[in-house]
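FAQ: What does the model actually see?

It sees only this:
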Amino acid sequence: MVKKDYRNNLIDTATRLFAERGLKGVGIRELSKAAEVSISMISYHFGGKEGLYSLVLQEQFACFEQIETIRELEAAPLEKIEAYIRWSIRRHREYPYLMRFYTSELTNPTPYFATIVDPAIKKVIRILMETVEEGIRIRHFRQGLSCGYGAGMIGMVNYYFLSTLATREIVSHSPERDEELIRHYMDLFGKGILT
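And it is asked to produce this:
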């Protein structure tokens, strides 16, 4: 007989439910029923629903630590932007619920926003701003470009994953098309849309 892994089952179940409805939208009884465990197991393993939510957020946003590898690249700014786009796409493919947590926390922040989500997002923005600033300094990017707005526009690659439901009939969201997606983003960021 195989021993059931209650802790990981709770994390998996909670990740799905919290992604669908947020921290306040999921009750502790619903969590215990969906995970097929007693409520006391949630308290035992996580100290309660909030502790479980905090752990789920930490797991979802842990991938943001990988952004440091882009900062450390010995590469031209445009190559760093391509590395960021590749990282963003990979991150969303590996963490399919991440965008839901991201938007939920941005629009309805929980007490964990300040300690988990905000620092992760700010780190990415700082690195993108540094990349744009470097591109301007070495004259790879046009003078007068705003580092903040430039970083924001580069970060819009995340919108592709936010809009999948609305655009599924007009854009292929298949992982097999990721290289084409990267090429289009690079064309837009590297060359713009003017001929």
